[in-house]
Amino acid sequence: MQLKHAAFSAIISISIVALLTFLNSSHWLPVPAIVLQSLRWITILCIALYGMKKQSLTTWILIAMVVGAEIGHDFPEAAKNLQVLSKIFLKMIKTIVAPLIFATLVYGIAGHADLKQVGRMGWKSILYFEIVTTVALFIGLAAINISQAGAGIKMPTDVHEKLPEVISQTWQDIILHVFPENIAKSVAEGQILQIVIFSVIFGVGLAMVREDKRMPMLQFTESLAEVMFKFTNIVMYFAPIGVGAAIAFTVGHMGIEILENLFRLLATLYVALIAFLLIVLLPIALFTGVPLRKFIAAVSEPVSIAFATTSSEAALPKAMENLEALGVPRKIVAFVMPTGYSFNLDGTTLYLSLASIFVAQAAGLHFSFGHQLLIVFTLMLTSKGVAGVPRASLVILLGTAASFGMPSWPILIILGIDELMDMARTSVNVIGNCLATIVIAKWEGELHPSAKKLEEIVETIPS
């Protein structure tokens, strides 16, 4: 009953603040700024009380996002200094990724010694990834051609932002980049696909040695995987602080008003991503019999982390843990999820096709449908291997612009709202990879939900 009272108080407070803000912005009922600010903080207090009663990490992450946005709005200068907290969280998460992938993949392959299944999962995953990301590219292409968000934009005269230098890559360079030359270097640079390749080959090699040589390493990787999952649980207690600080910094240095700038481009991306979720991912989930409520509960926490930090990598450890609790075997989670981070970034691939044509429209270049298809097919190759870190897609976008004779100044315009777009596309990346992992598990006939674990996950979803 106390939880219901706290929830009711929070809903009433949010409704009052929303109504007064609307009336004030419409000039129907002028409200002093200090009154609105005070009411917002009272509302946050009510939401925090609900969080204390709910006692859910997911709920606290969402509350932290609200608190962070308010701090960024009311105290922008102080909020800019909070970025260090979000960077601490990201650094701690990045220390987890490489050992977790290595341990779970090696144990999953060598522990079961079913090398045929590894090959089978490999081609099934790549087939699924290629189909879904290609559809995402075409949805992005359709959305920007319908909205014409880049048409009529004039080249700014006061652009001061510096773009990263892009080195032209051949198809040979792209293929070579998949394979590690130094695993320590791959770990240090966060090259997930290279770590996956190394781990798969290591696991296959371990599966081929005699049992007395295999067992010590197998026990080590099993123990390492368990320790890294516990390590993840410890780091996740810091997640609300890291997430709240990330949102505070974003609002503090960009301002709430940024939502008004380039609204058409922002709206185009968000509508296209929602369309992708409803037209592509939802039917896949329904067709394959994915339990939607349990799936939403499992991904809500990783998605909220990805949204706030704009990093798919930050959400990876928790997503892997939750999917395993959903009944996906560790060997499948460990193989499909990390591989998807290089081949199945649905939100990023959709954004790249959309942004590329936006650049052309802003520059006044009228590409034929065939030319646009060529850009899409180029992106099908270059978007593979995009790191799950903030702003990685910018390099791909710059490279695509250079390859097709497009100027770079429209990309500077995109930079103004890129963080807001990155939040959405990164969230879709995580949802897409989580769904892909479950689909491959069902395809393999190895989805075995645990009633107890499912109940624990469902309890985390905000009511």
Description of the molecule:
The protein has 463 residues and is mainly alpha-helical. It has one domain (83-458): Orthogonal Bundle (Proton glutamate symport protein). It is 78% helix and 0% strand. The chain has 21 helices and no strands. The longest helix has 33 residues, at 115-147.
Provide the CATH architecture.
Orthogonal Bundle
| Annotation field: number of helices | 21
Give the proportion of residues in helices.
over 70%
SSE series:
HHHHHHHHHHHHHHHHHHHHH
User: What distance separates the N and C termini?
Assistant: 13 Å
The CATH topology is given as Proton glutamate symport protein
Q: Supply the CATH superfamily name.
A: Sodium:dicarboxylate symporter
Q: Shape from CA axes?
A: globular
- The average pLDDT score comes to 77
Q: Residue ranges: pLDDT <50 for 5 or more in a row?
A: none
Total separate domains? 1
In short:
This protein is an all-alpha fold and 463 residues long. It has 21 helices and no strands.
List the helices and strands and how they pair.
Layout: H1 2-25, H2 33-54, H3 57-74, H4 76-80, H5 83-110, H6 115-147, H7 171-178, H8 183-189, H9 192-208, H10 211-236, H11 239-254, H12 263-287, H13 292-309, H14 312-325, H15 330-343, H16 346-362, H17 369-382, H18 392-403, H19 409-415, H20 418-443, H21 451-458
